[in-house]
Amino acid sequence: MAITAPLPPGSTIGILGGGQLGRMLAMAAVQLGYRVIGYAPAGDNVAISACDDFFENGWADTAALAAFASKCDVVTWEFENVPLSTVDAIPENLLAAPPKALMIAQDRLNEKRFVEELGATCAPYMRVESEEDFAKAVDRVGTPGILKTARDGYDGKGQWRISSAHEVEGIRFPGRPCIYEGMVNFEAEFSVILARSSDGQEGGNIRIWDSSANTHDGGMLVKSVIPAGSIIESQVEAARNIARKTADALQYVGVLTLEFFATKDGPVFNEMAPRVHNSGHWTIEGAATSQFENHIRAICGLPLGGTETRFASIDMRNIVGEDALSAHEILAEDGEPHLHLYGKREARDGRKMGHVTRVAHG
Ligand code: AMP
């Protein structure tokens, strides 16, 4: 597991997953002199244009996975729903982080139990495996609440909100394990994004970026803003403690994200992602070292870079669906708009097509 000596320039990083996170990871890796090979099933794999080579093969194609692994010096992922069987097909000594991180983060129940043991507070929740369980959970946990599929949900997909017990009947149970959780009456939302390297380095082997205030719509991130405001700032340290403990307990290497609600009673854990995160895109221009670069540094055994925020205010917004068609207008704005488009071919509704980060000095 995990590299101890730094990987020399010219070595090859393998990335499982082909989305925008892989694309931005590959761009950071190339800057540091590495070669990058991606792997993902055929589709709109926008990471391809940033990679030296790319395998478009199924997650279960063991021959292709073996060929991919034989070309890599280290393997990481950009997507937490890479099947565990895929990761198991990669020789363990090539994996940058332990597969346990994926195993925990792929299941909402696992991740809640894991962080609760480390001292985190979660919204009240119950496992739901049938319509009867659902009615029982609503009875015990109360309303309003959200039914979420335990696995494979993202950007608000696989979630059903109810405001009263009568609405249970209106929801067709998805027929796979779910979790029902009470709706949190939060003041604000934030994430803790950290980078952890495998060995000790001066100043510790964990670096944490400032937390932005994150706004979601329908379960999908809309914007991340710094400064985050006093409520979040007063709760960040408690949340960081949980995030540090989580990273240490997992013996994690790379960037890890934990999402929290800031409530009147302190931070409430929502979910984790063992990867770079949308709410950290502002770090590309806004921090001393971006989340993408520090992930590459961590998995290649290089010293982590500073995570200090470089501007008085930062505003990162996602560009979604058809909005991408007019996004170039942003470039004509005064100030410092930093436009990132991911090169996706189809601007479907609700699809993240890019983001813009606006920074200001004072
Ligand atoms: P998730 O997929 O769990 O990250 O949920 C996406 C977003 O939905 C969160 O960032 C919140 O804005 C909202 N959300 C999810 N779960 C809850 C909850 N238990 N209480 C209030 N809002 C929630």
Write up what this structure looks like.
It is a single chain. The protein is an alpha+beta fold and about 350 residues long. It has 3 domains: about 1-95, Rossmann fold (3-Layer(aba) Sandwich), CATH 3.40.50.20; about 100-120 and about 185-310, D-amino Acid Aminotransferase, Chain A, domain 1 (2-Layer Sandwich); about 125-180, Dna Ligase, domain 1 (2-Layer Sandwich). Helix content is about 25%, strand content about 30%. It has helices spanning about 20-30, 60-70, 85-90, 100-105, 110-115, 130-140, 230-250, 285, 290-300, and strands at about 10-15, 35-40, 55, 75, 125-130, 145-150, 160, 180, 190-195, 205-210, 215, 220-225, 255-265, 265-275, 315-320, 335-340, 350-360. The chain binds adenosine monophosphate (AMP). The site of adenosine monophosphate has 13 residues, from β14.
Outline the secondary-structure elements.
Elements: E1 12-16, H1 20-31, E2 35-40, E3 53-56, H2 62-70, E4 74-77, H3 84-88, H4 100-105, H5 108-117, E5 125-128, H6 131-141, E6 145-149, E7 159-162, E8 178-182, E9 188-196, E10 206-208, E11 213-217, E12 220-226, H7 230-249, E13 254-263, E14 266-273, H8 283-286, H9 291-299, E15 313-320, E16 336-341, E17 352-360
Parallel strand pairs: 1-2, 1-4, 2-3
Antiparallel strand pairs: 5-8, 6-7, 6-8, 9-10, 9-11, 9-13, 11-12, 12-15, 13-14, 15-17, 16-17
Helix pairs in contact: 1-9
Adenosine monophosphate is lined by residues 123, 146, 153, 156, 181, 183-184, 189, 216, 219, 259, 270-271.
